[in-house]
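User: Can you help me understand a structure? I only have the sequence.
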Amino acid sequence: MRMIKNSLGLLAIFLCILSFAIAFTINFTPMFAFDVDYFNIPARTGLSKETILENYRILIDYLNFPWIESLQMPDFPSSESGLFHFYEVKVLFLLDYAILFISAPLSFFFLRHKKRTNTLYELIQPTRIMIILPIIALFFIFINFDQLFTTFHEVFFNNDAWLFDYRTDPIILALPQEFFMHCFILVFGLLEVGLWLIHRYTKRALGL
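Assistant: Let's start by predicting it. Here is the structure, written out as tokens:
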């Protein structure tokens, strides 16, 4: 029973850090603003940086807030297929927030219980192992992001709506695959930092 509780607690910690990393990356608009210049997106779209950022803000608001039920980007028309894909993405965004709100308090109470019962030492080896996972993920991101990107969509979407045609969904010109690579790197980088901090916390609490 103790092993099961530890496993569930560690799972809650992992999901909490991962969902936070995703939520942070979703809303870290400075990275997109940087990529607009870095990938010369205005030249691809024929729109100014300010216009692109405004449309991106509208998109992010739609994906973030359940009470925004329709997506209308003034400078990027969307097909029915494209709108459906963004709806599916919205569902995943809201699911991530739900996981964060559930796993955060569970992680807090689990760590507090381990500290009160002087059993934080049980987390040192598992967190050390967990730290390796983002490193492996980052390795695959760098060596073959194209395949990872395709596999990700095949796992989370059971349709081809994510395969945008720039003629009907020109927003894809403003969201190049390289931007999503930066998003993946940031997510797993934050996951690595979060897991390392938990590992460091357990060692410091034990005076190690």
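Now, to help you interpret it: Residues 52 and 128 are 42 Å apart (CA to CA). The chain has nine helices and no strands. Let me know which part you'd like to focus on.
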